[in-house]
Design a protein that fits this description.
This protein has 91 residues and is mainly β. The chain has one domain. The chain has no helices and seven strands. The two termini are 25 Å apart.
């Protein structure tokens, strides 16, 4: 997860919760991290999303999920999801 600051707002990846929806995913939710988090996922459709933890709702302008953040995963396939959060704090 990459935080792209704007207007002097300082948030950390851990200020968000990442959720993976799919087929037998482990873990299915975890704190955001700037380090790699491996998720085991069964074959089929999946989607990765993030939500801000308390106090950050409405504090960001948009969240961009990379190509590997949704789709279909096949046997022996690896996907990479990078989430960018662009901040635009209003005065």
């Amino acid at each position: 997860m990459n935080n792209i600051p704007g207007n002097d707002f300082d948030a950390r990846a851990s200020d968000y919760t990442v959720r993976v929806d799919g087929n037998h995913q482990t873990p299915d939710t975890f704190p955001g991290s700037e380090e790699v988090v491996d998720v085991k996922l069964g074959i089929g459709s999946y989607k990765v999303t993030q939500t801000p933890n308390n106090g950050l709702i409405g504090q960001y302008s948009h969240i961009t999920n990379g190509e590997g953040c949704s789709g279909v995963i096949h046997p022996d396939e690896t996907k990479t999801c990078i989430i960018d959060t662009v901040f635009n704090v209003q005065p």
